[in-house]
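Hello again, I could really use a second opinion on something today. Take your time with it, there's no hurry, and the full record follows here:

___
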Amino acid sequence: MRRFDELIGLSAAQVIARLNAGDVTPHDLLDALEARIAAVDPLVNALPTLCFARARVHADALMRRPSGARGRLAGLPAPIKDLTNVAGVRTTQGSPIFAHFTPAASDVLVERLEAEGALVYAKSNTPEFGAGANTFNAVFGATLNPYDTALSAAGSSGGAAVALATGMAWLAHGTDMGGSLRNPASFCGVVGMRPSLGRVAHSRALCVDATLSVHGPMARTVEDVALFLDAMAGDDPRDPLSKPRPERSFLSAVRSGWKPVRVAYSRDLGVTPVDPEVADITRRAALRFAEAGVAVEAAHPDFSLAHESFHVLRAQNFAMSLGAHLEHCRDTLKAEVVWNIEKGLALSLGEVARAERQRAEMTAGAAKFFETYDLLLCPATIVPPFPIGERSVMSCNGVAFETYVDWLAIAYAITLICAPALSLPCGFTRAGLPVGLQIVAAPNADWRVLAGARLLEDILGLKTVTPIEPRVFRAPA
């Protein structure tokens, strides 16, 4: 058991180095994870579907390859979010509609990861269809925050973040529309990155030109996120929006020592209230860039059109991807999903056109902004983790929200401009809860996000390589 504990505490980069050196085997890692999940997951409910038998078959096949031909991940296990198909593995999307669905084929991204030596051993929990930044659903129940199990892990990649924080994963896959990689990373003290649009190819079965949601990496350190993005990145003819893999690896960018010249910090991007403690923690973290000789100034692009634009385009997305379920399965859908679909179906072409023009205007303004600033910094979320019994955040700092989506504005404003963004652990509240700093760069400058985040990670000294034991608290009745 001591050897298993040692493996669990290593970074993904360290584990891959051991795999390549022959010091450990993929089977050693799977055994360590299986033991860790048995001990920890009953307390947090992050990985409700396990597929270790499938992973071991893939491990056997991988080990028959020469040691230098096992891909970038070389046999490292990774969980896949339950919105994404894995061949032969139950994939529910957190919905009773698909509670017993087992796909025959994997998503394009899963195929790529397995070709790079990833071993899929689990599906991570998600809210129904990824809707709502709080990971609970009628199929598997709620995923709990390991820093306080009475609190939310956020979402929709909540299961992925909790698995990382508690040592049930070294790397984890997620998706992000309105902060679904960034919010749970912030709530759970790990690193979650939304890459640039098209950076990671994925299957587009329902809508070819959907441009709000992306797939991306999550890990306990910036370096590990970079190496996972290297494994994910690349084009595929089945995803016509996908981009070729960059010639320079993201891992080399992280290790390059690059630092920004000038960065901007904003406590609220001009669009949202923010909890004062969260604003203070993120501001103090951002100012520490100055220790590396980086100029830190107060500024942000104009996001005043973000609310209207995102609400319309999100609703349109729900109508296109989930509208068919409304007629036949309405009673099984959670209320928030029904609301989003109905809102989308009621949109006029004029409303959609206006939202697209607003998005284009903000994107152009942000491009101009990034001519002056290398990076934009702000809170990744506007509140610390909230009670698990609350479906979403409905007010902040005395301001009430109209919808369950409004509290995500600091994340979805960045989604709209197609920019890469990362949540970096940057401190803890007085109650000991983690807070994330959002680090943003111009579209396609993913390497700058990663290199800048690595620099600040080193300055802050908050690397979360060693996983935590869940802190079990009873939720109020």
